[in-house]
Amino acid sequence: MTAVAGARGGLKAHQDSIRLPEDELVRDLRDILGAKLVAYIGSVKETRAVRQWADGERKPSSEVMTRLRHAYHVAALLAERDSRAVVQAWFQGMNPQLDDVPPARLLREGHVDEAAQQVLAAARAFAAAG
Q1: Its domain of life (predicted)?
Q2: Alpha-carbon torsion 73, 97, 103, 62, what sign?
Q3: Under a CB-based contact definition with an 8 Å cutoff, are residues 59 and 108 in contact?
């Protein structure tokens, strides 16, 4: 029963990561992680780009949007149980399940699908440990 509850706990995060329009997803991700961390994951140097994505003035590349959708999935999953400050710290801190690589760095620099799977598995483990 616990496995089912845990899986359902992340269902909304997963659905939203797929269904939300790009600008809304970026706004929500920025609300959880902050503009600087979203810019870092999105491989841009200025938070102005994040604001432009959130306002619909500019679109990120498809690869960057994929990374942001994965980041949103993980951030929303963690935000169901923890504060924004904890989620931000989790994304930026060294993670033993990821060979001490911060999840944000892995999402930014890793192969997008592989990195997303690894980061999501680490997030689920963190959320389950509670």
Answers
A1: Bacteria
A2: negative
A3: no
